[in-house]
């Protein structure tokens, strides 16, 4: 006979049971105690204890019996997405985007404020402050109602929420984003690289929900990657995973130059903006031979670093996201042909449906991870 868990072992067992019940209730349909017991493998008595505890903590809600039920109806439970609110913030080169959502990621308010790409640290942080305040007001949510906040930024981020290195944003290296955001909203704040969070969004609510091994390409004014390995975001030893673009031979540093060169041969003078680059894809789509060649050259360089990641990870899926994903119709086939040249097996290539909003949604998912961790620590959210 196995020994009964005692002390800390019993506490840990309860936490694992709670996680199992919540995992099953994250679907669309409410479940009875009997159904939960079968799905989790717990006894009915244990399932009832867990459900009672989660009800008291606000994680679950009891569903009213269906009309016309005969006899005593079984109690049904659902995950209570409305119990708390989450905040996700994306701090980019040209904009700050803030999302206020429920615990399922349903967006209650979305606020976007443009920012000068040459803005320094103080100006960019001030724009972020205004964006967060406006998003909370628009959602009718007070700062104290936010259970957790996720923040996405370009650059390398350490475990404390400080930007270690940023080449693309002026005066951004060394910014302690977590500490700054805590002045706006109390509660836990987690900060992560934007490419990684875009990848996380795809496996949560995006086109990669069914895949366990994914290479995410952030294609836009700059190029980056996020890696999902065995269903989990891969950060690496020092949180530097996916930074293959730092290697000049990978081609990502020079890739946008092909698009810029075409723009400089036209009368356009907005080559430094996403709108300017978009005109290259528009012209390519219309059959402009110069634009088509520029896109092919861009994709060829993009494919070098992508092939290296594919050959290393053997992913099930490559997802193209970021601002340029809106023009993926002129990018996917050239990219597939290039991967066919270099890779032993070309994975499926899919296009994100989020465009440049995926990063902010990934920040929401990061915030939710923090909330979900309260189940395994036994703390009240």
From TrEMBL:
The keyword Transmembrane helix does not apply. Residues 26-61 form the HTH iclR-type domain. It comes from Kribbella kalugense. Signal peptide: none annotated. InterPro entries: ATPase_NBD, ROK, Tscrpt_reg_IclR_N, WH-like_DNA-bd_sf, WH_DNA-bd_sf. The keyword Transferase applies. GO terms for biological process: regulation of DNA-templated transcription. Pfam families: HTH_IclR, ROK. Belongs to the ROK (NagC/XylR) family. GO terms for molecular function: DNA binding; kinase activity. Keywords: Kinase, Transferase. CDD domains: ASKHA_ATPase_ROK. This is Putative NBD/HSP70 family sugar kinase. PANTHER family: BIFUNCTIONAL UDP-N-ACETYLGLUCOSAMINE 2-EPIMERASE_N-ACETYLMANNOSAMINE KINASE (PTHR18964:SF149), ROK (REPRESSOR, ORF, KINASE) FAMILY (PTHR18964).
């Amino acid at each position: 006979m196995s020994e009964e868990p005692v002390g800390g072992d019993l506490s840990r067992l309860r936490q694992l049971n709670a996680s199992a019940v919540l995992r099953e209730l994250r679907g669309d349909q409410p479940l009875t105690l009997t159904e939960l017991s079968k799905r989790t493998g717990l006894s009915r008595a244990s399932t009832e204890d867990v459900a009672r505890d989660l009800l008291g903590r606000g994680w679950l809600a009891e569903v009213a019996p269906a009309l016309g039920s005969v006899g005593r109806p079984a109690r049904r439970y659902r995950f209570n997405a409305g119990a708390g609110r989450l905040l996700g913030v994306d701090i980019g080169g040209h904009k700050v985007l803030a999302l206020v959502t429920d615990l399922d990621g349903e967006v209650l308010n979305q606020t976007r404020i443009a920012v000068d790409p040459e803005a320094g640290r103080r100006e960019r942080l001030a724009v972020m402050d205004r964006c967060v305040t406006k998003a909370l007001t628009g959602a009718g949510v007070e700062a104290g109602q936010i259970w957790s906040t996720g923040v996405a930024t370009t650059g390398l981020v350490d475990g404390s929420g400080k930007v270690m290195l940023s080449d693309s944003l002026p005066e951004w290296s060394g910014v302690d984003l977590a500490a700054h955001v805590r002045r706006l909203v109390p509660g836990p704040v987690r900060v992560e690289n934007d490419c990684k969070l875009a990848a996380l969004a795809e496996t949560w609510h995006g086109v990669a929900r069914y895949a366990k091994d994914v290479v995410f390409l952030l294609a836009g004014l700059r190029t980056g990657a996020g890696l999902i390995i065995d269903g989990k975001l891969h950060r690496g030893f020092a949180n530097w995973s996916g930074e293959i673009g730092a290697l000049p031979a990978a081609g990502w540093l020079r890739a946008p130059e092909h698009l810029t060169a075409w723009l400089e041969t036209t009368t356009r003078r907005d080559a430094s903006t996403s709108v300017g680059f978009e005109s290259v894809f528009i012209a390519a789509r219309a059959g402009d031979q110069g634009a088509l060649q520029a896109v092919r050259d861009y994709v060829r360089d993009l494919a070098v670093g992508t092939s290296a990641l594919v050959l290393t990870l053997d992913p099930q899926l490559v997802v193209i996201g970021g601002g340029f994903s809106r023009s993926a119709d002129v990018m996917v086939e050239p990219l597939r042909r290039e991967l066919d040249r270099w890779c032993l097996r070309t994975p499926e290539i899919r296009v994100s449906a989020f465009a440049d909003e995926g990063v902010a949604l990934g920040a929401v998912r990061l915030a939710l991870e923090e909330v979900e961790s309260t189940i395994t620590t036994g703390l009240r959210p």
